[in-house]
Design brief:
- The protein has 339 residues and is an alpha/beta fold.
- The chain has a single domain, classed as TIM Barrel.
- The strands form two sheets. The protein has a seven-stranded parallel beta sheet. Strands 2-3-5 form a three-stranded mixed beta sheet, covered by helices on one side.
- The N and C termini lie close together (8 Å).
- The chain binds zinc ion (ZN).
- The site of zinc ion has 6 residues, from loops.
Length: 339
Amino acid sequence: MFECTIAGSLPKPFWLSETNKLWPQWKAQGKELDIAKRDATVFWLKAQEDAGIDIVSDGEQSRQHFVHGFLEFVDGIDFEHKVKMGIRNNRYDAMVPKVVAKLRMKGRAHQTEARIARAHTRRKLKFTMPGPMTIIDTIADEFYGDRVKMAMAFADLLNQEARALEADGVDVIQFDEPTFNAFTKEAATWGIDALHRAIDGLKCTTAVHICYGYGIKQNIDWKRTLGNEWRQYEEFFPALAKSRIQQVSLECTHSRVPAQMMGLLKGKDVLVGVIDVASDEVETPEEVAATIGRALEFVPKERLYPCTNCGLAPMDREIALGKLEALGAGTRLARQRYA
Ligand code: ZN
């Protein structure tokens, strides 16, 4: 009961890249960089196991950013001439690459880190990739001329990589779609269609992560404009409940999302955010167990997976380690309490 897991990313060690950044520069190159990525992956697997995390992740140690880390392996994209674009429904500007030709995989995107992770843990292994809608909101289009068409083209590439990850021994494949909260109507229609295309033919567990973003200033300012109750989930959770995606990872603790939203996901596994990634204060096991208790009003025990609200990538490493411990300890406490 209550298998706990994380949304995906973890901080990169100082010897791998710059720290506390969403787009950090690598510290090494070539073979040395490959070794540093491997060592960081193994370190975080051990840290997750020690903390009692049941479904572990590679911590996204091998990619610079959660979207561009996949795009690097796609042909048809110009990374040399980035352009400034408003992203997340113009919440903030980012320098983004451009699609300039038909999209194609250059080869495997995540084989190396997936195989390293698989070789170093016996726990269930989750692998994360950006969702199609989030990708097209983080890249400029100079080729397809139609956002949905471009999203479907990316969904086919994600599917190709996802099938290969499944063959590498990955147990859960999760697509990150924070953009669903910015384009709620599109999420309910073509956003879910694109996810279906990305999971086509998979036998492993499939998940989607939908949050209110990392704890960066642009997101904190945006959240201030959303009022006392954040009801974005309400607009597409009913459609998601009817979808073929098995698990939904959502933001819960310290957010203004009404807990009733979780009740809209009948029939789905719900990965409940019990760890706040926008605060450096480490939760106590008691707080974590209490959040799990509140979620139990809307999610059946056997479908509740304690999780983090979002990735921990930009956090201080020691704080992230403390939060992993709190997640594990709080889950153990909840198991005793609600068994
Ligand atoms: Zn997130």
